[in-house]
Queue: 2 jobs
Job 1
Amino acid sequence: MDDLLILGFRFFGHEVPGARLERARYIDGDKLGPVLRSMWRRGDGLVAIDVLEGDSADDAEQALQQVLRDVQSPLVVRTETADLGDTAYAAPGGGGVYFARANLVMIVRDAGDAASVLDAARAGRCHPRSAESTCPTRVRSTSTSPTRSSVLFG
Amino acid sequence: MSVQLEAVAFNHDNSAATGDALTIRRNATQDVTVPEWRRGLSVTPEDSPAAYAKAAVAGNTLTIKVQLSRTGPAPSTIEVRALDADAYPSPGPGGCLGFIVWLLRLLVRALVGNPLGEVAARSITFPASGTTGLESFTLTGVRLDSVGAGVRTTRWRWQYRQASSDAWTDFATTSHRIYVLLDIPTAPWVQTPGSSQVPWTDVLDRACIWASLATSRNEAAEKVTRAVYDLGPSVVEYDCPGGGASHYSLGSFDCTAFVERLNGGVGNGRYVNCSDCATIASTFANVLGCDLWQSRMESGFALNELLAIGSGTWQTACGWGSFNYHEVAWLGGCTQNDPVWDACLQVDGDADPTTAPHTPMLPVNLVFGAIGAGLYRDRLCTPAGRPNCNPAPATRARRLVV
């Protein structure tokens, strides 16, 4: 599990290869808290990426389980694809991927003719130590810095 | 003398909706300002919307408030009224064709015409400034009790005269979009001014058409449920690719995105699941005065073959064989004795729902039922799945609209 706390996550529009950011906005997710909802156009397909920001990795894990309660198929199961996140679940065929990474929950779904969204899910995860990462505005290591104000990456 | 109509207020009493219009807004971000009609700003009926709850106003006198101004020297007191601008009292000349046109006008009037009648005449005294405050006027000939749910247009011809012996003089024509609801909207909708949960005209525009002419809550709920199901496959379809995930109802109801989708935009995409359908159906029905919940049955139960929204193939929900859970619009306590409205799927309505051939039946006002009762549960689930498919009334909710 990453020792990371990612604050103020947002999209800049180039995170998903070959896709154009159509819209990103926060909505009130009620008990889930604010949800960053984004729609991406890739060719004729649409990919939806929702991001929930928890206070901790444990918080994110609980939120992920809450999200999965709204999935009807019994075939959406935990996947061992290690490059997605700390905990990841995927629909058969790759039309929906649900994972937690640090304190974030990411929900990546085919929203229309997108086929597999696995690549979009991989693109959406955060690489705080990578020069190419742009998604989090503030990231810190929770193992070395107990204060929320610490900023290691921005 | 010149008289001008400055403003007309329909929702002039925020504390009640028994003698005036309901509190409404356009959508999550835009209010409906009161007075709803303002000179120079309101041109089309959509510019001046008002909603009335039939049950709340039944038997009561309806009033509006009107602001007037005058210019030039004149008596300070005049009499003012407004007539139905679309009234066609007789066929008139024109022979057979004229009669047919008159009949068609009557039909259109019956379906979408003015439900508010006319504005009764009263005397108005202008102050020295020449502009009145918002003066109360009584409506006469109101037809709200005799029309069903719907969206209608009221057009008024405003007239004044200085003395009772004078002829009436036209001085304005106004048009208004009038939503006729069966009762005061129920949760998540509220009547708290300023709240984002005040009924949206973006939702009323659809709900009133979907439930057009409905005269009871059950009928309105059925019409809305059928309309939602019929959005497939052109607007939405069941989320087989994503495993049946919520696209519009995760936490709250992303009604803004759904309305965008209805209007031809992207919204949150084409896929929906049962929670989305239950939320859409109940929220759109409740804005008309229905009283439905979104509630689940749980958990992990094998399915009969069904027709999911947007699908033309009888299968066990994308071929999965079972559901982790299912969610529907549900009445009352959301128990096995209460009826459900399922906008997400059609079940087999014949004597044996477990095998083909299938007779499609959209579950509307169908009691969930005990095992073996031949009701909703038996039609949705296989005999082996039925014991695992139980109402979960603790999950009942009415998601906030955002």
Note: Residues 4-141 of chain A form a domain with the Protein Transport Mog1p; Chain A fold (CATH 3.40.1000.20).
Job 2
Amino acid sequence: MKEQKDFLQLFNGCLPVEEIINSWYGRFKNSNYGAIVTFIGVVRDENKIDGLSFDIYEPILNNWFDTWQKNANEKNAIVLMAHSKGDVLNHESSYIAAVCSPKRRVALELIDEFVEDFKAQAPIWKYDIINNQRIYAKDRSSVIKGSGILL
Amino acid sequence: MVRIEFLGPINKEDMNLDINNLTQLSEILKNDNEVSSWLDTCAVAVNDTLVCSKDIPLIDGDKISLLPPVCGG
């Protein structure tokens, strides 16, 4: 379980939440982590959308995730993540993040930082699905650090 | 040649350009109607590493990616 793909998993369509969470718990419950904190993102029914759709640029996502894994490892913790590619309908899950740590405080603080940095920096683009069309969620998107150098 | 790819919603075919630095790329893209409006909010990666400055020499075979604003989860 040293490969990145064991910690960062991408799925076509909605996430099989129970399968993912059970698998992580099964893998790490004997690793003496006193705290396993999970965050499950669920697509809300709002603004007349039928769901969300996602594009991912995997090479930079992998680099971003590796940096986070090193950061977590320095605190004797690990991070785990699953995300959807393509369409995810309302009330399904597109994103799960988790932190396993010997200590509760480390896990609770890291999950907050990890999820917030993910939202701000991970190279994933979100679209609303309305009437079978994908509409870029521009207003909800964040500019990546260092943007605008070509202007 | 340097390959330029436009990620996510920019929705533009890759370009192959004979350029030596990002300043040259900037001049080309500022005059491209499909891309110019994205430039102020796009991050830039050279060979899949994000960069914060235009002062980076480019060599044959390099890949440049433009990353518009993101929203995972």
Note: Chain A has a mean pLDDT of 96.
